[in-house]
Design goal:
Blueprint (H helix, E strand, L loop, with lengths): L27 H20 L3 E6 L4 E4 L1 H7 L3 H4 L10 H16 L12 E4 L5 E13 L2 E10 L1 H26 L3 E6 L4 E4 L1 H7 L3 H4 L4 H4 L8 H11 L1 E9 L5 E12 L5 E10 L1 H30 L3 E6 L4 E5 L2 H6 L9 H8 L2 E4 L11 H8 L3 E9 L5 E11 L1 H4 L5 H4 L8 E8 L1 H41 L7 H31 L8 E4 H13 L5 E6 L6 E4 L1 H17 L5 E10 L4 E8 L20 H5 L8 H11 L3 E7 L3 E9 L7
Parallel strand pairs: 18-20
Antiparallel strand pairs: 1-2, 1-5, 3-4, 4-5, 6-7, 6-10, 8-9, 9-10, 11-12, 11-16, 13-14, 14-15, 15-16, 17-19, 20-21, 21-23, 22-23
Keywords: Kinase, Phosphoprotein, Transferase, Two-component regulatory system
EC number: 2.7.13.3
Protein name: histidine kinase
């Protein structure tokens, strides 16, 4: 509460009691007249709805009404005798004294709102905007000023809200004007009353030209049914949307997606229609082209399906890591002996139908090693893979499987939506072909019988010839009886070499025969692959002076359980090939490493020789297969070495592959599972 005795608030006040007048009347009559006038004025102030205050020329409050007391939160006795500045914030009080003094020097009426913006301060120190009207009055020849104070808080809030709404309307109007869609407003008679820039751009009529025109006549509107039906929908539902056909100023026809809303006045009478039209002419043209393309694609697919159904091989199109079926031909069901449903994963199909797959050597094929899955994961074709299908009725069918992956970007966009089964288009698609090779297997069986017979018949005479050649060379070396001259020794040495080569061929043929007859077995034992590899490299290095064999490994020992003789045979074949097919000599690298995360050991044999033509790489692991550039160079060979390598590695549970570029060189890779691996 204010201290009425504080000299800082009214230094001009002298000893007076609350309510005492700041004048000194000359006589009792003047005093009575003054008090009477003041009482009448006070009663008048109480009648006013505004907050009223009366101050003298020194700015001291002499009279207030109840509205002002309520507005500022003071009692009557707290205000009378105080300077007017007590109703202002403290930081404005000093400046207001000068303004008030200047005003009193030439006091004049000032209407509400004509003065500067003012701020009042309540007793609780809360501040609020106010406006004040001033009017000088004289009581018994003494000048006073009466002020009406009005709280402007609510009005200021209204003004701010009005400004915000106005700003939003301006923004909306700007957005409407800048919108690409054509936005127009029609009155109840369909005359255009608003036409934005989007409408000008679409229809090529300016707003000035369009205003007042009947929109349906101006645009020569073609309705999906009738104009009457559209108007009836607007009346019943208050809105309509659909496609309209309009004619532009230059005669061009456009198709628009139209949304229309009926606006009613306070009495519910239709007053305007808001219409938003979006040009979909190009979209509809593209959709039409797409429909034509789909129709053409469907026709081509029907022809393709007809062609595929005429082929004897089982042909499948699968998608994704689960190998879900997209399409198959008629031969597919006969191949499996069961129907593979479209969209069903291959693994689920095989398990559901009781179908089992085996390798050519008779080993069960793990489902994670399905041919399509291997091509799906690598993105590279898997060709000429021999498998055996065991069908639900127990019959076995030998097949040759090819899997060719396609990228989703090149194939999926061309497939109909119903064919892709709504699976993610990022998944790869693979074409898998199963060829029945029963007739080929029978021919191979007859050939294998002949090879087996010929091999066994050759083995004995070859051994005899080689034995006699050794004896002749040994006797000549000891000088017994008649010696051999240089020519004879050379011919006998050639005879021994030929016999050795024939014996090596005979052993390879015997291995092939055992593999084809499923009489081949592995004799596994703990083997240090580091020592084994060094032994093979040392032996083969002695056969060549033009090649440098280098062995790379960080392992002092690597023990695994394998058939040591057969793994030595694989390493020897691959390194011998690297030597043979690098006639110019050079470096040959052999690397060995262990991958503990995959539980396998990996070999790498690399040369910089003649390489393998790309067109012949898919067949390289077949029997009696040799690259044409090797034949042309006169390099001899049987074409059995890589076939045996593949069979031996796969029977160990491993994989073999290669990378090659003709004229640059080849790198062969093979891996073996670590059935037993101990680093010491």
């Amino acid at each position: 509460m204010m201290n009425s005795q504080d000299p800082n608030l009214h230094p001009e006040k002298q000893d007076r009691t609350s309510g005492e007048l700041p004048i000194q009347p000359d006589n009792a009559e003047l005093m009575i007249s003054f008090l009477l006038t003041l009482n009448i004025l006070g009663a008048f102030l109480e009648l006013s709805p505004d907050a009223l205050i009366v101050v003298d020329t020194k700015g001291v409050i002499v009279l207030v009404n109840t509205q002002l007391e309520l507005l500022f939160g003071y009692g009557h006795d707290e205000l009378i005798g105080q300077p007017i500045e007590c109703l202002l914030p403290e930081h404005l009080r000093a400046g207001h004294v000068g303004k008030r003094t200047r005003y009193m020097q030439a006091a004049h009426p000032r209407l509400m709102g004509s003065g500067p913006d003012l701020v009042g301060q309540r007793k609780d120190r809360g501040q609020f905007p106010v406006e004040i009207s001033l009017r000088p009055i004289r009581i018994e020849r003494t000048l006073y000023v009466m002020g009406a104070v009005r709280d402007m808080t609510a009005l200021r809030d209204v003004e701010r809200e009005r400004m915000r709404i106005s700003q939003r309307l301006r923004q909306q109007d700007k957005l409407i004007s800048l919108a690409h869609d054509a936005i127009l407003v029609r009155d109840a008679e369909s005359r255009i009353v608003s036409w934005n820039e989007g409408a000008e751009h679409l229809y090529r009529w300016t707003a000035q030209e369009a205003m007042g025109k009947v929109s349906h006549s101006l645009l020569q509107t073609r309705f999906p049914s009738t104009q009457k039906a559209l108007d009836q929908t607007l009346l019943q539902h208050g809105q309509w949307q659909g496609e309209l056909n309009h004619t532009c100023r230059d005669g061009a026809r456009v198709i628009v997606e139209s949304r229309q809303v009926l606006v009613r006045d306070d009495q519910g009478v239709p007053s305007a229609i808001l219409e938003i039209n979006r040009d979909v002419t190009e979209r509809r043209r593209l959709e039409h082209l797409e429909q034509e393309a789909h129709a053409e694609m469907d026709a081509r697919l029907n022809v393709l399906q007809l062609i595929l159904d005429c082929l004897p091989n089982g042909i499948f199109l699968v998608q994704g890591p689960q190998l879900r079926l997209l399409m198959a031909n008629n031969a597919a069901a006969a191949l499996w002996g069961a129907e593979w449903a479209r969209g069903q994963p291959q693994e689920e199909f095989l398990q559901q139908q009781g179908i089992h797959l085996f390798t050519a050597s008779g080993q069960p094929l793990p489902l994670e090693d399905l041919t399509g899955r291997r091509a799906m994961a690598s993105g590279e074709p898997v060709l000429y893979r021999q498998l055996v299908i065991c069908r639900p009725d127990g019959t076995r069918l030998p097949v040759m499987v090819d899997a060719i992956p396609f990228t989703s970007l090149s194939l999926l966009p061309r497939l109909p939506q119903e064919m892709t089964l709504e699976f993610p288009s990022v998944e790869r698609v693979v074409l898998v072909v199963y060829q029945d090779v029963s007739a080929l297997k029978e021919a191979e069986r007859l050939k294998d019988q002949f090879i087996s017979l010929a091999t066994h018949e050759l083995r004995t005479p070859v051994t005899i010839v080689a034995g006699y050649a050794d004896r002749l060379l040994a006797r000549a070396a000891r000088g017994e009886e008649h010696g051999l001259d240089e020519w004879q020794r050379e011919k006998v040495q050639e005879m021994k070499l030929a016999s050795w080569q024939l014996a090596s061929l005979t052993e390879d043929l015997l291995d092939v025969t055992r593999i084809q007859a499923d009489l081949f077995s592995l004799e596994r034992c703990s083997t240090d692959l580091v020592i084994l590899t060094r032994k093979v490299i040392k032996r083969l290095q002695a056969t060549t002076d033009r090649h440098q064999l280098a062995f790379q490994t960080t392992l002092p020992q690597l023990w695994v359980k394998v058939d040591a003789v057969r793994i030595e045979q694989v390493i020897s074949n691959l390194v011998s090939n690297a030597i043979k097919y690098s006639p110019g000599g050079g470096l040959i690298e052999v690397a060995l490493e262990e991958h503990t995360e995959t539980h396998e050991v990996r070999f790498r044999i690399r040369d910089w020789g003649m390489g393998i033509p790309r067109t012949q790489q898919a067949h390289l692991f077949g029997r009696f297969v040799r690259a044409e550039n090797a034949r042309a160079a006169g390099i001899r060979g049987t074409g059995l070495g890589l076939y045996l390598c593949r069979e031996l590695i796969e029977r160990h549970g491993g994989h073999i592959s290669f990378e090659s570029e003709e004229g640059v060189g080849s790198t062969f890779f093979f891996s073996l599972p670590c059935l037993e691996s101990v680093l010491q």
